[in-house]
Design goal:
7-stranded mixed β-sheet; alpha/beta; globular; 5 helices; about 20% helix; about 240 residues; 13 strands; 6-stranded mixed β-sheet; about 25% strand; single chain; Metallo-beta-lactamase, Chain A
Length: about 240
């Protein structure tokens, strides 16, 4: 599994022959790419805030994976194909997306859509992307990536996402102010039991500028087994 961070919460995930793009927002200081430089098969949207859907209209051929409410908005506003199996998925659901399996998980955050029309954005979410369908049978060959969306620290990480979905790599918002800061993001990394943890959703706007060294120190202070992965914008990490 190839993971590439394009700044803010935008991640490009490749699972075998399938490309998935999460929360496309390229007007951030960490990327040199234009939206059209990528051609994803699936477009995963965690929630409706502009800094997570701003460039969704650049991918008219991608299949949207989101809540039914947000999928409907994307179809109406951007002309995008509706979500997997012709409908939006929802919290707790798992959908087969090409060579990947996508499980939608809870995120604690607000949710709205900036529009001239009245839209319900549904619940905010995160995603666990894996190369095999998650089950409770032991399978050490299963590789999984957790994109936490915009979330606060929540016990769901410790009680559900960690023990049942067992993410190998966790991408966690760490910019503070609108989401968790470095200290709570480090606790989240410990709770989900990931081998690797990367901060995201930082340095885009003045209120969320951080020293990523703080995340590394906080992660060490928790005693988490996770290794901190601090990526530069447009940098990739191979998860095996």
């Amino acid at each position: 599994m190839e993971l590439t961070w394009h700044g803010h919460s935008t991640w490009h995930v490749t699972v075998d022959g399938t490309d998935l793009l999460v929360d496309p927002f390229f007007e951030n200081p960490k990327t040199d790419l234009e939206p059209g430089d990528l051609d994803p098969d699936y477009l995963l949207l965690t929630h409706g805030h502009f800094d997570h859907v701003a460039d969704a209209d650049a991918y008219p051929d991608a299949t949207v994976v989101s809540t039914p409410e947000l999928a409907g908005y994307a179809e109406d506003r951007f002309g995008l194909e509706d979500a997997v199996a012709g409908m939006g998925m929802n919290l707790g659901g798992t959908a087969e997306c090409g060579d990947a399996w996508v499980t939608m998980v809870r995120a604690d955050h607000s949710n709205s859509i900036e529009s001239d029309y009245e839209y319900s954005a549904g619940m905010p979410a995160g995603f666990v992307i894996s190369d095999k369908k998650p089950t409770q049978e032991a399978d050490r060959d299963n590789t999984s990536f957790y994109h936490a969306g915009d979330t606060s620290l929540m016990t769901e990480m410790r009680e559900v996402i960690g023990p049942f979905l067992e993410p190998d790599f966790a991408a966690l918002p760490a910019g503070d102010h609108f989401t968790m800061g470095p200290a709570q993001a480090a606790i989240a990394a410990d709770w989900v039991g990931a081998d690797y943890a990367a901060p995201m959703h930082y340095d885009t706007f003045p209120p969320i500028e951080i020293d990523t060294g703080t995340f590394e120190r906080e992660l060490k202070a928790t005693g988490a087994r996770a290794e901190a992965v601090i990526l530069e914008g447009d940098e990739s990490f191979t998860l095996e």
